[in-house]
């Protein structure tokens, strides 16, 4: 009879030992998850802080505002099969900075000559559509960017805005 209580005690210790091992494994797994969560949160916090520092640095350097140079209006004869057609157009050039404005002003006869030649080569019907005007803007930018001297630098013209556009 003494053997029966011994077995009962052993089985009770085995059950307690099995439960305590499960609890220990669960506690270790929970601790690992908590530490991983803390580490991930810290990494996210620090990366956001670094990004916000970089954003502040980028925001502190303001982008240069472009300069604008209005041109006197142009009046040219257009190519036309149906009779005399005229184009009267006024425009403003968008350039990188005031230095470019001064450079273009100093070479205004070249710019005006280039643009007069370009405008007078156009057909009235192609300038009536929005697509035709967009193509003309691109061509004007290309002409305005050309260097003033054979080995000179290109001008920094980034846009053209029509302020008046009349075909008659």
UniProtKB/TrEMBL annotation:
Protein's name in the database: Flagellar protein FliL
The alphabetized list of GO BP terms reads:
bacterial-type flagellum-dependent swarming motility; chemotaxis
UniProt record similarity statement: Belongs to the FliL family.
Transmembrane stretches in the record are 24-46
The question of whether Cell inner membrane is a record keyword is answered with yes
Describe its function.
Controls the rotational direction of flagella during chemotaxis.
Q: Which InterPro entries match?
A: FliL (IPR005503)
Q: What is the lineage of its organism?
A: Bacteria, Pseudomonadati, Pseudomonadota, Betaproteobacteria, Burkholderiales
Q: Which UniProt keywords are listed?
A: Cell inner membrane, Cell membrane, Cell projection, Chemotaxis, Cilium, Flagellar rotation, Flagellum, Membrane, Transmembrane, Transmembrane helix
What does the record say about its membrane topology?
A: Single-pass membrane protein
Q: Could you name the Gene Ontology cellular component terms for this entry?
A: bacterial-type flagellum basal body; plasma membrane
User: Which cell locations does it reside in?
Assistant: Cell inner membrane; Cell membrane
């Amino acid at each position: 009879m003494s053997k029966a209580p011994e077995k009962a005690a052993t089985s009770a210790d085995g059950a307690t030992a099995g439960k305590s091992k499960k609890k220990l494994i669960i506690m270790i797994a929970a601790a690992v998850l908590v530490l991983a969560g803390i580490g991930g949160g810290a990494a996210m916090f620090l990366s956001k802080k670094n990004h916000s520092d970089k954003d502040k640095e980028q925001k502190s350097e303001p982008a240069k505002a472009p300069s604008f140079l209005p041109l006197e209006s142009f009046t040219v004869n257009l190519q036309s099969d149906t009779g005399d057609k005229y184009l009267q157009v006024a425009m403003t050039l968008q350039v990188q900075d005031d230095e470019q404005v001064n450079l273009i002003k100093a070479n205004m006869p070249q710019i005006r000559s280039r643009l007069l030649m370009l405008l007078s080569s156009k057909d009235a019907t192609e300038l009536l559509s929005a697509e035709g005007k967009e193509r003309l803007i691109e061509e004007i930018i290309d002409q305005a960017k050309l260097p003033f001297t054979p080995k000179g630098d290109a001008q920094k013209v980034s846009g053209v805005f029509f302020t008046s556009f009349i075909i008659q």
